[in-house]
Amino acid sequence: QVQLVEAGGGLVQAGGSLRLSCVISARSFSGFPMGWFRQAPGKEREFVAAINWSADLTYYADSVKGRFTISRDNDKNTVYLQMNGLKPEDTAVYYCAVQLYNSASLYLQRSYDYWGQGTQVTVSS
After folding, report:
1. Which residues contact 92 (CB under 8 A, 6 or more apart)?
2. Are 123 and 9 in contact (CB under 8 A)?
3. Distance CA 26, CA 105 (A)
């Protein structure tokens, strides 16, 4: 059974920072790509960032490029999302996900096989 648990969400003022973490319980975490998605109220879930297994390739949505950084620590079975320069439009529930069974595009939700329960990020203006 694969489980993902996010943490680090909260309320922050515009311009502030948060670091999200996602711990995965899996037999071999280091071999799998990971991603972060978010869903704002009344909107569809959207891609935020992704990272390959060796952490030498990262991918970002245009809306967060230059402000957010995805990273991973395979020894700790953890992936991180460092969010700087937060804006009110970043307010959403943030989800991490893992791709285990396919090699489809990391930008797509359907490419991921397991998801966390989400953590709320609220940015006040």
Report:
1. 38, 39, 40, 41, 43, 120, 121
2. no
3. 21
Q: What is the pLDDT of residues 65-103, one digit of tens each?
A: 999 999 999 889 999 999 999 999 999 999 999 998 878
Tokens representing 26 are 């899996």
CA distance 92 to 38: 6
For residue 1, what are the contacts with CB-CB under 8 A and spacing of at least 6?
25
Amino acid identity of residue 113, one-letter, is D
Distances (CA, A) of 43 to 80, 95, 104: 24, 14, 24
